[in-house]
Amino acid sequence: MSLDRDHAAWVKAIQDDGLPWKHISDLQFWSNAAAQEYGVTGIPYTVLVDREGRILEKGLRAHDLEFKLEQLLK
After folding, report:
1. Which of 16, 24, 37, 60 is deepest in the core (most CB within 10 A)?
2. What pTM was estimated for this model as a whole?
């Protein structure tokens, strides 16, 4: 999810940084609907969501995120 305001700059950053995953944005900056729904208070911010849309974890970084993903994907 992106908190960008400018569509062209957002797309350019995705391409420049080689980010292959899916990206979403409504270009509403901090008023972004998904950011509001998931309680994003800063960036970067992680939200792990299962296939049913349930939030499994929020705010994990670095090794904690890697560890949780390893647990979930086993």
Report:
1. 60
2. 0.63
Q: How far apart are CA 55 and CA 28, in angstroms?
A: 23
The C-alpha atoms of residue 4 and residue 25 are separated, in whole angstroms, by 7
Contact 25, 2 (CB under 8 A): yes
Q: 43 is in which domain, residue-wise? A: 7-73
Q: Residue 63 — very low, low, confident or very high, per pLDDT cuts 50/70/90?
A: very high
The CATH number that applies at residue 62 is 3.40.30.10
The answer to whether position 1 is within a domain reads no
Peptide bond into 20 cis (omega under 30): no
